[in-house]
Amino acid sequence: MKKSKKSFASKIIGRLEHIDFPVWNICNLDAKIDTGAYTSSLHCHHVEQFLENKIHMVKFYLLDPDHPEYEKRLYSCAVNSVRKVKSSNGIIEERVSVKTKMNLYHRTYTIELTLADRSNMKYPVLIGRKFLQNKFIVDVSKKYLTD
Asked: Does CATH place domain 43-136 in 3.50.50.60?
């Protein structure tokens, strides 16, 4: 018999929250919590895939130069997958996804993020329902509840 997941979430978060990516030493980023989006995404630029010791890797720059947390640092990690994602404007695009650790609500979670150009968006990180499901309840009238 298949074990069922919890049918409720115990933590309430707002429509905006501060998050950290400890593996990349990035702290206090604004993240938009979006139950309408399935996948989570992270603003990156100069995204390039490559092979290293027969492992599919990706390198990229996080954020934009005018962001307070920007470091002109080239990040790299293993590719989790490459898949088609429908963007907010309805266009289907191919994106690289990676897995990393994220701190939220005084806990560390593994999160899958697609690497996307979010330069036209207000927030560099979007947290979608694939991550939120069975972990959180979103109160859209609130923000920064985890601080």
From this structure: no
